[in-house]
Amino acid sequence: MMATIARCLLALFLALAAPVRAETVATLASPDGVLTVEFGLNGEGRPEYRVSRLGRPVIDWSRLGFVLADAPKLERNFALADAARRSFDETWEQPWGERRYVRNRYNELRVRLAEKSGAKRAMDVVFRAFDDGVGFRYEFPDQGSLRAVNIVDELTEFAVADPATAWWIPGGEWNRYEYLYEKTPLEELSQVHTPTTFRTENGLHIAIHEAALVDYSAMWLRRVEGRRLKTVLSPAAEGARVKRTAPFPTPWRTIQIADRAGGLYESDLLLNLNEPNRLGDVRSWFTPHKYVGVWWSLHLETESWASGPKHGANTANVKRYIDFAAKHGFRGVLVEGWNVGWDGDWFANGSTFSFTEPYPDFDIEELSRYARSKGVRLIGHHETSGNIAHYEPQLTAGLDLYRRLGIDAVKTGYVADAGGVQARGADGRVVFEWHDGQVMARHHLRVVQEAAKRRIAVNPHEPIKDTGLRRTYPNWVAREGARGMEYNAWGAPPNPPEHEPELIFTRMLSGPMDFTPGVISLQGRGQKLQSTVAKQLALYVAIYSPIQMAADLPENYERNPRAFQFIKDVPADWAETRVLHGEIGDYATIVRKDRNSEDWYLGSVTDEEGRVLDVPLSFLSPGRRYRAQIYRDGPSADYRANGHDIVIEEREVTAADRLPLRLAPGGGQAVRFIALPARGRR
């Protein structure tokens, strides 16, 4: 009898403790019918959603809502006030990008939620279902019951349905986004940045991120139990993490879904969730290009940012770089350390930088004139040390100087520990913010907008993460936001061979990266790159940016003219991109078609394992002949002992052929396919 009572009490306890499951009140399917979104309300009036693929959950029931600083939670007591659906289908043209034309096709569900009692506040949740994933966001309408929206916490969850492996970097740690990727079971995640990529035990690939991050705090993910991930908003120095006035939308929360890793990279979901181009004909003033610069020598410490006998940004030295760029067809020359402020401990506070005053040994007027006479442009540099309180009052003057001198691109920098951005608070005091908080979301957009007024492109380092805003502001051409090439100069350890195959299916899902490839000397500061020369060439295709640096020293390129030729030839703007095969952190083969010719380019990279891959050339135009210029690892190539072994050869191919790729450990292969005229044609 007692045992029966105990069992009954246990059953009652479990029933009371179990979450109240949502009842579906609205559904949405992707245009191809493969993905389904269900929106539900449970018995407490709590909103939840679920995403399924071919009837099987991918994201199981996950809660929605907010915790506010000065009002009750937006979490329970909701009823469905309205549900509206629409479909959309367009094809739009990128001014530059991985592909020229992008199809934007989705079905949309908008649900209006209203509280059943109390203040009866309203909130919309908008879902868009694409064939390659789902995006959703909240929209706060104009209403007297909730005008000032001060968000302490966002309750959005992503309950991954199946066991999965995750690739991630930690969120909220000191080094911003500049960590090596971890590969663990999903259940071992703690707090991570997005994009975070998963491969389920059934082989499905999922990436969680956000799109259109405007005037809002960036999203991290924290595992709260099992495979359930919860949104964490990047902190603010004072008060709520997001402070807005209704009406306004939040960023989109995105879930990309693909059968293969390459399908994630080929997705345009993030771009499609951003607003169209607001800047007009950007191609008339921004040209995708390659550049060289006073940069690698600074990391090698053979030259310095600071003034003195080793100062790299001196007139004679920069003229040498300009001459090199003109000789070899590079449009840009980046110069770091040109402006007053680099002496002493500039990292500590950034309060000594001038963005208009050059060092005495750097004649910016003469160098700008000299560069233009050679068909070259200087690329500007604004390092702030994360001190935007000091930078913002000088921003327009610094950009005006560049505009007057014909400098039409600027690399900005925010070198500071996470949580160490110095900004001006509402009361005028300096406070410390995070690189990806709401304050910095506002700051970066202000820089991009001010630069656009002057027809200047922007490439921030130590940035806020990419969320597809390059569609709306196409002068936001690239950014860092990951562990880049400089770690190969002084990192402990340098980037391992699996780093680039991980970046392609993680960081690169968010947008272009200024990775600065092409160090064919394979030599850092007292350490070697864990790469082969062929892999350094392949990175120009594998890791995309519309501004690509040839990062090595000019003299190293002069010593290796045959390998350097591929860097000179490869474009920075594409008509089409395809991932032929790849696995996260293991290998990837990407082909891209030049936007300005019929030529194709291939880049294949691998991790520490050597691989033999077979590539069908069916991406080439049928019936046309191509001359394949092949840059491949030599027979003794190995990143540990002989990264310099490279074979450069040619062969004629067609779309009916197959190309074997032999990738050495830590190696790669680069190929240029030059379209040949039809036989008999002169």
Category from helices, strands and their pairing:
alpha+beta
- Which strand-content bin applies to the residues? 35-45%
What's the overall geometry? globular
Q: Give me the oligomer status.
A: single chain
Number of helices: 15
Based on CA atoms alone, the radius of gyration comes out at 26 Å
Describe this structure in words.
- With 682 residues, this protein is α+β, with helices and mostly antiparallel strands.
- 18% of the residues lie in helices and 35% in strands.
- Strands 6, 7, 8, 9, 12, 13, 15, 16, 20 and 21 form a 10-stranded antiparallel β-sheet that branches. It has an 8-stranded antiparallel β-sheet with strand order 1-2-3-4-11-18-17-14, with no helix packed on it. Strands 28-25-24-23-22-29 form a 6-stranded parallel β-sheet.
- Residues 5-18 have low confidence and may be disordered.
- The chain is built from 15 helices and 37 strands.
Features:
682 residues; alpha+beta; 10-stranded antiparallel beta sheet; single chain
Q: Which SSEs are present, and which pair or pack?
A:
Elements: H1 2-17, E1 23-29, E2 35-41, E3 47-53, E4 56-63, E5 66-68, E6 78-93, E7 101-115, E8 122-130, E9 133-140, E10 148-154, E11 157-160, E12 164-168, E13 182-185, E14 191-192, E15 196-200, E16 205-211, E17 219-225, E18 228-233, E19 242-245, E20 248-249, E21 252-258, H2 261-266, H3 269-272, E22 289-294, H4 296-300, H5 315-328, E23 332-335, H6 346-349, H7 364-373, E24 377-383, H8 388-391, H9 395-405, E25 409-413, E26 421-424, E27 430-433, H10 438-453, E28 457-461, H11 487-490, H12 499-504, H13 533-542, E29 547-549, H14 554-559, H15 561-569, E30 574-583, E31 587-594, E32 600-606, E33 611-616, E34 626-633, E35 646-653, E36 658-663, E37 668-675
Parallel strand pairs: 22-23, 22-29, 23-24, 24-25, 25-28
Antiparallel strand pairs: 1-2, 2-3, 3-4, 4-11, 5-10, 6-7, 7-8, 8-9, 9-20, 9-21, 10-19, 11-18, 12-13, 12-15, 14-17, 15-16, 16-21, 17-18, 26-27, 30-31, 31-32, 32-37, 33-36, 34-35, 34-37
